[in-house]
């Protein structure tokens, strides 16, 4: 059964948790963004606010809360790699949303991208985007990071989906015909 929750006398005109619940009804994919801290070590976090932005030039965006422990590192990072998680990588979504950076990367295989950025050495991601940290814009309590994509790759792996604060798996992905 579908329950429609609207405003009622018990609901304040604008209630933050109600707003968050409404936002959670928008299904998204889940990514892990990996960059390099000033000391050279990798930093990473789970991000679902990823979106395509522009085809020409190729741009994507994602947002990070200003109170994030990594915000200062992200602001100064030269670039980052955005990994779109597959259904088989749900554990990574939990891992990169809590704990210290050291704990997040414990036992995680890493490699350098062609342009020298840290990235997950995991061929079973759904896709990845290697980005230059092109532009940042603070809006409310988040910073919008705009990435200029200079390399990307994708697979037919079934993607991980986040909806109503839960993870879901999509039906198997059909073979995609590549348009070039
Ligand atoms: C599925 C999921 C999606 C998330 N998406 C975002 C997001 O888009 N932006 C954000 O700031 N935090 C997001 N988070 C929370 C961050 O992953 C979490 O706050 C993390 O601790 C941030 O890292 P830091 O505080 O070490 O910088 C998400 C968490 C989960 C589990």
Automatic annotation (TrEMBL):
Residues 23-169 form the Flavin reductase like domain. It comes from the Bacteria. GO terms for molecular function: FMN binding; riboflavin reductase (NADPH) activity. Keywords: Oxidoreductase. It holds the Pfam family Flavin_Reduct. Belongs to the non-flavoprotein flavin reductase family. This is Flavin reductase (DIM6/NTAB) family NADH-FMN oxidoreductase RutF. It comes from Paracandidimonas soli.
